[in-house]
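Hi Q.,

Before the meeting this afternoon, I wanted you to have the 2'-deoxycytidine-5'-monophosphate prediction in hand. No need to reply - just skim if you have a minute. The sequence and ligand are here:
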Amino acid sequence: MNKVITIDGPAGAGKSTVSKALAARLGYVYLDTGALYRALAYKAIRNRVAIDDPDALAKLCATTDVALQNINGRMTVYVDGENVGGKIRTEEVGLAASAISAFPVVREKLLSLQRNAGERGGIVAEGRDMGSVVFPDAAFKFFLDADLEERIRRRTLELADGKGKAKSACVARDMQARDQQDSQRKIAPLTASPDALIINSTSLSVDEVVDRILERMAAAGQRRPNGRKPNGA
Ligand code: DC
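Predicted structure with the ligand bound:
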């Protein structure tokens, strides 16, 4: 049976790369929930909406259509009918996404969209609160972490691949700000669900992390052939 697999963790821990690779290995759909927050943040920036004003954000949420469409096994985000994928990967949008994600109105707007995407299973869902809030009954939960230095190094490289050069000092500052915002907010903070397997990927390759996840899934399946709550066993 197709299952929901959740992968949570801080920025730069390798969640996206690992989740994409895992989804491809299993023939599952890949859902990047950070892209939903980024998409709303992108519209807020473009329309000069104050990202710290709950009323302005409530209005933004009420007047924005956010939709997901499965394109070749990857959920693509549309904002008011526009595919914003190419425009939401900047640090500016990431920080704004982190800021608006602390507001209940924003999280509520995006919750049902995420749950609907996982309704039929067969999905690898990546984010901050996948195992704790969005998919509490997920079959397998993982929390991917890495040392701060390594996360900064990876993120710097990733941004340098895109437009312009990323300065490691700026990336470090932004990442620490985001870590703090994401883990200290009142609702759905970044946290490892008690039934999630924590993997530290600092010295592991993407394939090694994916192998570890698949091994864990296989081992849990063998131990509990009825497939019920195999995680954390
Ligand atoms: O994964 P990402 O860097 O694209 O996410 C951008 C921001 O969105 C992140 O800093 C916090 C927020 N986010 C969230 O609050 N909950 C999620 N499930 C995913 C992302």
